[in-house]
Amino acid sequence: MLQVENLTVYYQTLKGQVRALENASFTLADGEIMGLAGESGCGKTTLGHSLIHLSPPMTHIGGRVLLNGQELPLADMQKMDAYRFNEISIIPQYAMNAMNPIRKIGQMTEELLRAKKADVKTVMAALKDRLEMVKLPQEVLGLYPIELSGGMKQRMVMVLSTLLDPELLIADEITSALDVASQKAVSEMLVEFRDQHCCNSVIFITHDISILYQIADSILIMYAGQLAEKASTETIIHNPRHPYTRLLISALPEIGVRYSDKRLTGIPGKTPLLLNPPQGCRFRERCPLAFEKCAEVPPFVEIEPGHSVACWKEGSADA
Amino acid sequence: MRKYFGRKLLIYLLTFFLAVTIDWLIPRFMPGNPVANMLARVSVNSTAASVMQEYYTHLFGLDLPLWQQYLNFWANLLRGDLGISAYLFPKPVTQVLMNAIPYDVALLLPAILLSWLAGNNFGAVAARSKWLDNTVSPIGYILTATPYMWLGILLAWFFGIILDVFPIAGAYSFSLSPTLSWKFIGDVLLHWFLPFFSLFMVQFGGWAIGMRNMIIYELEADYSHYLEALGAPRSLIRRYAFNNAVLPQLSGLALQLGVIVAGALVTEVVFSYPGIGYLLLAAIQNQDYFLIQGCFLFIIIGVLLANFVIDIVYVLVDPRTRRGMTGEAA
Amino acid sequence: MKALKQKNEFLYFALRNRKLQIGLGVILFFVLLAAFGPLLTDYEPFDYVNPTGPVAPSSKYWLGTTFFGQDVFTQVVMGLRATFLIAILGSGIATLVGMLLGFLAGYRGGILDEIINVLTNIVLVIPTMAVLLIIAAYLQVRSLTMESILIGLTAWPWAARAIRAQTFSLRTRDFVDMARMSGESSFKIIFSEIAPNMMSYLVMTFILQFGGAILNAATLDFIGLGPTNAISLGLIMQYSMMWGALQFGMWWWFVPPGLAITLIVGALYSMNVGLDEVFNPKLREM
């Protein structure tokens, strides 16, 4: 189980701090696949990365993260190494180029495992089964990354990242570079990985809500560095409470149809710059329901079991 | 892989063909009459003049059509006949050059290999910390910006004149005759060191800078970030980055060969080191055109051979060329 | 609007980049020295001004005199002029030829690309200096202009290759497609769409060519194939070696010209690294 408490992460730039993640608190249950969605630049990637590799220019400002009750040394690059890959792993957005181009894949895997002091023999044996699960032939281990197709590389990296059965897997936009058919296949494989206990909980970062509808147990919506709403997938799709989520969902012409960032411009206004974000709720400039209270930051409160919203209208209505 | 080598060989053959053609073309189509000039110079020695005159008429055979002159030129070349040196009359140019080659090899081979290896390793270390980077990089940039002959002159002045610990001219002392004795070998090494060292230093700076920049680029590559995210130890990430960065450095070596050879020429001039560069200076001062042409051809052949060796090494180091995935090394 | 903002951002970083500042400062110093230096001296470079021959630097002869009593400062200042002239002409020609071939090959592709590629590879493999040598050796009278043209015509392959690669990656971009669909000519697309988008690249190529031309000219001069009717930094070094400056310890004869070349070329490299940092945000130091 993952508990994130008031996690705040800024980017240090020459022009000042970019407030990319502000006071994020949520929990992720064992075996839960949580979709993390929002427009590009909303902080979803920052959130995902800060859980595993919080490196400069990202700076840990405050808050803590507990994995199975144990606090993660987020800001300590060295100490975090013990958790990376073993307990927390990531399938990066750039999976196509994630493997050393001049090493055979099998050789690279072995070197990585040895460097991580893992039980190389057992894991390499398990690797064979994993390859089968993602329908890759054993021969890929003798190949160089350049000899694999894009989809094959994606699946290979998926296998690699989960080799040590991490407690938490962060899947960062793993479907965005793929065609629709492969998107579906890869997402389903991810679910199977979870079912086969190759990983415990999953955070699935995407801007494509329709994919989440197919595979996610819950969805967390972010807006401009703040959490907006978290609930079960059904609730988010059919009964969203945050005005932003509502606009987002209504902008989907039909569930199952992919929307792109472009369509979101259907919501009037534009996302605030996070270099000098407005006080209070950052959505209030675009929000049809905004009132004076919104000048204060709304707390991210649970309005019903498993359903949290950060909105003065919603939070107070139920309180 | 066959395609890779095929392409490379084609380029090299075309280059050689072009070089020989230039070598043939230039004396014939340059303004003035260089060969007459050359003959005027040797005319002090009347036998030489008449032999040269005869040779010249025979070789250039101006009464023959151009295509036949051209074919003759190739025929002579392939027999290893590059004419007779006017400056070292009556030695054939080929023989004069053959005597100079060992000195060039002894100077260039260690200077190129050692500076490349040392520079790469040093650059990789420099990329490791900001402090090292801030001290090493400026030195590296100054070294690569230094003209080869000037560093040679400075070294000769400092070690040869001020400290007087190294000889600054020739390949061995006049008082010694070449024998296989320790004394002679020591003397040869002593004469070899400064020209070697100045060649080494200028190149070293270049490779260190190159590696430093390449490795920083590679450390920003996706595969490095992935390993970081998986908590791989720094040593593994650096090793991978280094292995990847060595490849462009290797193609860089092939591209730099011409510049390095030019550097060797002037370094030999500074130290009166009897390689091709020194010969070339003498040939230019004495207007010995056959010798100049011979130097030109030998330099081209040497660079082409070295390029080919680097291509082979590249295939050994980069698996992708072996699998026929990429065709271009340099 | 966006482009303007980007330009301002580049300017912001350019003005604050130490490497760029140092590089520009050094270059500016030498350019001013070359431009106004002759006003500071009463001598001509080849005049035998000091009848006693060589003397060390003094208030009368700032950088001393040569073996023959010529003023080294005057020679260096005039040599700087020659160096800059050769560098501008040589690198200008090389960059222009490189742009022409690089744009053509990268934009047109196909068989033209193949031919240019083979040609580039050939000229790249041939040691430039060897070709310069053999041509220069047969010229009885060699001028600075001639030397620059020769250097420019042998140095273009680097530029051509780099520009080809950039053009190749730009030609499939949206804005180029748009221009092509709206029926603009290749020439117009190259110069109004592609070239401006790789300006930083072109500038950096030119700077590297500039430094290369200076070093090439020095080598050529030093080996005795420099201009026959002028003075240059390479020639000063050649004369100093020919007339035993080393043996007689006349360091003021060979140190200044080499130092000037090293500083100028080093400053150019420094500028290049600085510009690289300005244009590639990834390399900027936080």
Q: Explain this structure to me?
A:
The complex is a heterotrimer of chains A (319), B (330) and C (286). Chain A has 319 residues and is of the alpha/beta class. Chain A is built from 10 helices and 12 strands. Chain A has helices at 44-50, 77-80, 105-115, 120-133, 150-161, 180-195, 209-215, 233-238, 243-251, 312-318, and strands spanning 2-13, 16-28, 33-37, 58-67, 70-71, 88-91, 168-172, 201-206, 218-223, 226-232, 301-304, 307-309. In chain A, a hairpin with a 2-residue loop joins strand 11 and strand 12. Chain A is globular. With 330 residues, chain B is mainly α. Chain B folds into 2 domains: 2-78, no CATH class; 99-329, MetI-like fold (Orthogonal Bundle). In chain B, 78% of the residues lie in helices and 0% in strands. Chain B contains 13 helices and no strands. Chain B has helices spanning 2-29, 34-42, 46-60, 66-78, 93-126, 130-145, 148-162, 182-219, 222-229, 234-270, 276-285, 289-317, 319-322. In chain B, helix 7 packs across helix 8. The longest helix of chain B has 38 residues, at 182-219. Chain B is globular and about 80 Å long. The model of chain B is unreliable at 326-330 (pLDDT under 50). With 286 residues, chain C is mostly helical. In chain C, 74% of the residues lie in helices and 0% in strands. Chain C has helices at 2-16, 18-36, 72-108, 110-125, 128-138, 144-170, 174-181, 186-197, 199-225, 233-242, 251-279. Chain C is elongated and about 75 Å long. Classes of the chains: A alpha/beta (319), B mainly alpha (330), C mainly alpha (286).
